[in-house]
Amino acid sequence: MDEKFLEVMQHEGPATIVTINGNPASVVNTWMSYIEVDPERKTLLIPAAGMHSIEGDFAKDNTVTITVGTKEVEGTEGPGAGFHVYGKGHFIDAGEDFEGMKSKFEWIRKVLVIDVTDMAQKI
After folding, report:
1. Which InterPro entries match (predicted)?
2. Strands of the chain, DSSP E
3. Domain map of the chain by residue range?
C-alpha cells in the first residue's frame, strides 16, 4: 500500500464508500479512524452498523470505490492529500476479524472487508 495513503489514514476525516451498480449508485459514509488498514493483506476492515444498500448491491457486483483524504498531509499541490481506493468487498459477521472489530465497536452488526485492488492519489 502507498506510504502516503498510510499517512493519510492516520488522520481523522470522512470516508465515502460507493458501489457502481445501484440505480442510483449506493453511497455510505464512515470515519477514517474506524477503518483498520492491513497493508500486508492489502485489506481494509470497516465496521458496519447499517450499510444495507452496499450489502444489497454486492449480490450483483461487489466492486467498490472508497474516497479518503485529509488537509493534514502534504498532497500533490500543497496542503491536503486524498485517495480513491478501488477493490472488491464482502461482509462478515463471524471470525477473528469480526470479533476484533466488535471489541472496538460494540454497535456493529457486520464488518465490511475490502480487498484493495488499486488506489490513486487524487490531490
Report:
1. Split_barrel_FMN-bd
2. 14-19, 27-31, 36-38, 43-48, 63-74, 79-92, 110-121
3. 3-121
Query: Cα–Cα distance between 56 and 102 in angstroms, integer?
Result: 22
Residue 112 has pLDDT above 90, yes or no: yes
Confidence (pLDDT) at 1: 82
Tens digits of residue pLDDT in 39-63: 999 999 999 999 999 999 998 999 9
pLDDT of 89 reads 97
CATH 2.30.110.10 fits 3-121, yes or no: yes
Q: Which helix (H) or strand (E) holds 99?
A: helix 96-104
CB-based burial, 1-37: b 16+ in 10 Å, e otherwise:
beebbeebbeeebebebbbeeeeeebebebebebbbb
Q: Name the phi and psi angles at 102, rounded to 5.
A: -65, -35
SS3 17: strand
